[in-house]
User: Fold this.
Amino acid sequence: MSWVGTTLVVGASLYGAYSQSQGLKAQGQELVRQGEQSMLTGHRRVAAANKKAYLDKGSVLEQGQDLIIANYVSSNEEITNATSDASGSGAQISGTVTDVTRSKQVQSSAVANAIKQNTVRNIEGITRDTRDQNAETMTQARNNQLNANNAAHSKYTSSQRALLGGILNAASGGYTTYNSTV
Assistant:
């Protein structure tokens, strides 16, 4: 009968140790999964930020094009009006109409260049901000994954120690039970 009691004590102790070990392993696996999810979430956020930046750049470019077209139309109207005014004034000085036309064209070109440069700066700003945001997002995701992996490693180590402790406890309990029945 002492062997039956000893076997039951040892079996129950070993099963308890094994169950505790498996529970800790499952917690470790969940932490690894959370770390992987953090990286996947980071990649999804980067993809969404890149898409938004692409659309924003397109919008800024379209606005810049619209401004350049509006400037061109306005400039051509001004040149036409200036040419009509200069021609209709009865001025006999050669080159006056040409000078006015050239001046308006230079002004229009300067405005168009300013619009172009501003558009390029805005697009570069969007690109820079998106790149910085993406770098921060991925750094945070990597740190989250690293922390989760470290915690999982700790759980795995605890699992091994709990199993070893349980085996030793089962051996000790079995010995004690056997000696107390003999």
